[in-house]
Model the fold of this input.
Amino acid sequence: MVMYPCPHDIRAFEKLYEDEDMSMCDGLSSEYAMSFEAFEKLYHEEHVPMIVKKLVGKTRFVATKVVATPDGTPPPFYRIAEIHFPSLEALQTCAQSAPYTQPHAPPVGRKYNPDPIYGNGGSYMMGKGYLVNMIGLYEFVCGSAKYDEPIELVYDDKIKFKYTQKQMAKVLYDQFTAPVDEGGTDLTPGIDCEVGKVFPWCVSVGGFGMKILDKIHNTNYQTGYYRWLDWAKQNLVGGVKGSDGPYEWASIYYDRDIPIT
Done:
């Protein structure tokens, strides 16, 4: 299911994202508004044909326009697209087919793997990194060793995974220190959050979780994070003046799937 916000919100968000102008968060300017007519033209001429042509294996496509709500408040979404598949396997096959399998370098796609901790050998830091951090903070504050025991992570009735806190940290350490992920992409820039994009603050959240774990259990997983941190200081921030001066710029994210020439 895909839910589209009102047209003026779409354009404002795109402009905010492109310009990285965070002052716009205080209010979205009307100069970025898209008319409903313009959005409908874009939706019918680009979005709908893309869905019809490229979502292989679907059995039904329902395009809904939200015109009102029961209580009279503005609808939270303008359009809702429902794409139906005959089975989970059919959906997974579609998700693994081009163009939805993001190419790596060398050009092979990410293979479907529901394990949220392994994360295809170098992904999903926004999940596993934050989880390690939250568990570490819980144990540090509460003194409880509850999560030293295996935690069951449930994908569905049949697919489940069990990890202890230390096992999660070990996965992070192994991926921080690995040369490439299972698709052949360089892991020096870090474990990505989604679709190859490495967000420094997410990586640092995971690194801090490893540091907390090391402090409590006298382990040494955080050294894997420091490998990435050394690279990040040279490539993701800059403009520092003097040995103790502040950085003048920082990258929002780094895309591991875009080769640098």
Remarks:
- Residues 2-95 form a domain with the Alpha-Beta Plaits fold (CATH 3.30.70).
- The beta strands are 2-4, 60-65, 79-84, 151-154, 160-163, 197-198, 237-238, 249-250, 254-255.
- Residues 9-33, 98-108 have pLDDT under 50 and may be disordered.
